[in-house]
Amino acid sequence: MADNTNLTTSQRNILKFDPKDHEIALSTEDLHVFYGKTEGISEGDLQFERYKISALIGPSGSGKSTYLRSLNRMNDRIATVKGKIMYRGLDINSNDIDVYEMRRHIGMVFQRPNPFAKSIYENIAFALRQRGMNKKQDLDEIVERSLRQAAMWDQVKDDLNKSALALSGGQQQRLCIARAIAIKPDILLLDEPASALDPVSTSQIEDTLLELKQNYTIIIVTHNMQQASRISDYTAFFNLGKVLEYAETGDIFTNPKVDLTNDYISGNFG
Questions:
Q1: What is the pLDDT of residues 151-174, one digit of tens each?
Q2: Is the pTM of this model over 0.85?
Q3: Residue 128 phi/psi, 5° resolution?
C-alpha cells in the first residue's frame, strides 16, 4: 500500500469546476480541523455542484465525517475549524454568521435515525411551529409534501398520529430526511444514513436520494462503495485527513489517478 504522507498537490487529483458551466452550491478553501493539537483535516479544498450527489469515501478515521460535519458547523463545540466554507458568497465559517439560520439552508441527517418521541406528524410540524408557522392548513401541506419527497407518504398517511418510534429503522431514517427537508434547505448533508439499515431499506433510501437531487444538493458520507457508485455524480476519496482524489464517480471507480484511491476501492486496505 502506498503512503500519502508526502503527496504533493500535483500528485493529488482534485476536480475544479468552471463556474461558467457548473453552478457551485458550496465550496471549502484551505479547510483545517483541529481536535486540540491533533489535525483531523489538513487538506480539504472541494467544490460541490448544485443539484448533484457527491459521495465522500475513505477508511475509518480518514476525516470524511469530520469534513461533512464542518459544512454546517456541527463541529463548533468539539473542534477548531479554520479556513473558508463558502455558501452563496458568504463564508459561513466566520464568527458573525447566525449558525441556526445557516442550518435552515444546510440541513443534516445523521448515521442513526433520531426521530423525536412524538407522532409522525409532529416530527415534521414541530420545527415549523418553532419558526412561527401555526396555521394547520400550511402545516398539513408541508407535512404531506415532505413525506412525499421522502417517499413514505403512502405508507404513513393514515397513521400520522402514530408514534414515530414505532416505525421501522428504514422508515425512521426517511422520516428524518422528511423532517430535514420540511424547512426547504438548499443542501442536504447525510452521514452514512443507511449504515444501520437492511438491504431493502438501504435501496429505498437510495431511491429517495436520487429523487431528491432534483431539488437539493446532496453530500453523503458512505462506507459502502457500491452505494457511492450507484447514486453519486462525484466522489471524493479521503485518507489521513486529506482529500486525495475528487472526480466524477465513474472515473473514480474505473480509472482512479491516485494509487491510494485504487488500493482502497480495490479492497486492498480500509
A1: 999 999 999 999 999 999 999 999
A2: yes
A3: -65, -40
46 touches 14 (CB < 8 A)? yes
Look up cell 485527513; give the residue.
Answer: 241
Dist. CA 161–CA 123, nearest whole Å = 10
Q: Give the H/E segment covering residue 80.
A: strand 80-87
What is the DSSP secondary-structure string of 196-227?
TS-HHHHHHHHHHHHHHTTT-EEEEE-S-HHH
Residues 6+ apart with CB under 8 A from 240: 4, 5, 62, 63
Sequence-distant (≥ 6) Cβ neighbours of residue 241 within 8 angstroms:
33, 39, 40, 41, 42, 43, 62, 63, 66
Residues contacting 117, CB < 8 A, separation 6+: 163, 164, 165
Q: What angle do CA 166, 125, 182 make, to 5 degrees?
A: 100
d(Cα 45, Cα 65) in Å, to the nearest integer? Answer: 15
The single-letter code of the amino acid at 130 is: Q
